Amino acid sequence: MPGTEPRNTEKMTIGHLIEKLDSLLEGEQASAALVACGRPAVEPLRRFLMEGRPSGIYQPRRWAVEALAGLKAKDVLLDYLRSDRPIPDAVARMGEEAVRNAAAAALKQWPSDEVCEVLTGIIQHRHLAGAVGTLGELGHEEAIPFMVAALEDDVCRETAETALRKLGQAAVSDLIIAALNPWPNREEESPLSLRRRSSAAQLLCEIGVSGEQWTRLRPLIKETEPGILVAAARMAWRIGARPDVEEIAVQLIAALDSADWYFRDEIGDVLVEIFEVAEPMVDHQIARRVNQPPEKRVADNALRTFLRVARRIRGDR
């Protein structure tokens, strides 16, 4: 029949390209070629994604996602994300996470209630970085509490921070709650809770808080975690709460002896920023520590920080 041969040839071509997706050498080119095939490639790609077996070698399935995104197959990607089937094998589960991240990230080209609803439903139950990032790009404020919860996740934290920065002032109220509330309580706070609170405090510092909001955050003055103290000092300094800055400076100086190298540098930077308040405290610490026995003085990392702070300020005068 007229026209049968071209259609059969087209099916053979698409089938051949689908097979090539499994090749690490040819899969990426096959994905691009499938996009060039247009809508007839959508259904074979849907079957490849929905019926295929997850694997630690996730690239073929991610290339299928990229092809579907290029073909504007939003509904297929949404169906895939809705069908979160259990994967017993840990390696395959990690591989499939990369595929799901790619699918969620691809959905940012369709800013719609449906997309936001599906992605928000996902991050209520699991910290999927691609979903968090897309919701941030789309400015979906209803997802803010779940983005804040994702600050506990080492894998998802950076993406969640970026999303919350984009949402700006809309996120401040939830970030204040997160910064102030250790879990399960202050005496037995978990490391994950401490990471969430430190990240929330630093985001509040970046976004900026009002005097009224700082009043709510004042309990941070009593913290001992360096990351939280650094953020609290900057917030208080920038709104002009000098008595609070003085109290935080005492805490920062006390934290220096046990801080790691990263937070020693952070504390040093803050002491430079608030040197108008911190100068007598820094001078006192230098005078007290320089008279230690040589072996102790050489090992005193906090002293080195105080000396650097003093040099940076007085060198600028």
Structure description:
The protein has 317 residues and is mostly helical. Helices cover 71% and strands 0% of the residues. Helix 4 (59-70) packs parallel to helix 6, helix 10 (157-167) packs parallel to helix 12 and helix 17 (275-289) crosses helix 19. The protein starts with a helix and ends with a helix. The relative contact order is 0.05.
Number of helical elements? 19
CA gyration radius, whole angstroms: 27 Å
Q: What portion of residues belong to β-strands?
A: under 5%
Which spans of ≥5 residues are poorly predicted at pLDDT below 50?
Answer: 1-6
What is the percent of helical residues? over 70%
| Topology, number of strands | 0
Oligomeric state of the chains? single chain
Q: Indicate the mean pLDDT.
A: 93
Amino- and carboxy-terminal Cα gap: 90 Å
Shape verdict: elongated
Largest sheet report: none
Estimated structural class: mainly alpha
Order of helices and strands: HHHHHHHHHHHHHHHHHHH
Q: How is this structure best summarized?
A:
This protein has 317 residues and is mainly alpha-helical.
Describe the secondary structure blueprint for this structure.
Layout: H1 4-20, H2 27-37, H3 42-51, H4 59-70, H5 74-82, H6 90-106, H7 113-123, H8 129-137, H9 144-149, H10 157-167, H11 172-180, H12 191-207, H13 211-217, H14 226-238, H15 242-256, H16 261-273, H17 275-289, H18 294-299, H19 301-316
Helix pairs in contact: 1-2, 2-4, 3-4, 4-6, 5-6, 6-8, 7-8, 8-10, 10-12, 11-12, 12-14, 14-15, 14-16, 15-16, 15-17, 16-17, 16-19, 17-19
